[in-house]
Design a protein that fits this description.
Strand order of the largest sheet: 1-2-3
Strand content: 25-35%
Oligomer: single chain
Number of helices: 0
Structural class: mainly beta
Number of strands: 3
């Protein structure tokens, strides 16, 4: 039987993150298993100047 778990929403520095696992009702998954959804987000354009690397 499948169970639908409701994600908890958190704002981490302007990034919206929904976490489903770990969940109080589904403890048998494992202590270090995470299932997250992030976004959608729009990030500002970043200009990077490339510099050649000499060996």
């Amino acid at each position: 039987m499948a169970k639908v778990l409701k994600a908890k929403e958190h704002d981490i520095g302007g990034l919206n993150v929904k976490r489903v696992l770990p969940h109080q009702e589904k403890r048998m998954v494992g202590p270090f298993v995470f299932f997250d959804q992030m976004g959608p987000n729009n990030f500002p354009e970043i200009r990077i100047k490339l510099t050649p690397i000499y060996a």
